[in-house]
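Hi R.,

As promised on Friday, here is the backbone we talked about, encoded as structure tokens. Could you run it through your design pipeline when you get a chance and send me back a sequence?
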């Protein structure tokens, strides 16, 4: 993973990005062998959800290093993550949109998981399926990026 970081650029930020992923993969491999038993128990499911949340947040944190222009900039941003939060109209709108659009999808995923069938929607009436498909189409139309984003590898 360190080599993968260096492949993206010869900077400490990329090296740290690769190192974070490498350490996390090694820890995952070590602990998944220990916790492999009991995945069907309630504690096993909670452990699985917590590990997914932890992995998601660690990957997001690693992106700070990947996108920063310098190590100082990355460290300053990470320091600001814990302090100085403000509630603005932009934040309120963003959180509202996320709850409005992602909330029903999370409920749908929980519904499919509870039925242990990823295609449970196909067993429903056409009206229910139409409502879900329409919601997904509207979500794709209205929940797009607010401004064009530069291609990530443009600088390479």
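Update: got your reply. Pasting your designed sequence below so it's all in one thread:
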């Amino acid at each position: 993973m360190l080599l993968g970081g260096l492949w993206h650029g010869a900077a400490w930020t990329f090296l740290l990005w690769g190192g974070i992923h490498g350490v996390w993969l090694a820890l995952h491999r070590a602990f998944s062998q220990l916790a492999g038993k009991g995945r069907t128990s309630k504690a096993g499911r909670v452990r699985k959800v917590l590990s997914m949340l932890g992995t998601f947040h660690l990957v997001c944190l690693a992106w700070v290093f990947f996108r920063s222009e310098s190590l100082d900039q990355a460290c300053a941003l990470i320091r600001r993550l814990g302090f100085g939060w403000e509630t603005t109209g932009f934040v309120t709108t963003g959180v509202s949109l996320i709850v409005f659009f992602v909330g029903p999808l999370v409920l749908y995923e929980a519904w499919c998981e509870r039925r242990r069938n990823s295609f449970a929607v196909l067993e429903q009436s056409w009206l229910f399926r139409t409502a879900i498909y329409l919601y997904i189409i509207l979500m794709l139309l209205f929940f797009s990026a607010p401004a064009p984003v530069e291609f990530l590898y443009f600088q390479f």
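One thing I noticed while checking it: Residues 2-81 form one domain.

Thanks again,
M.
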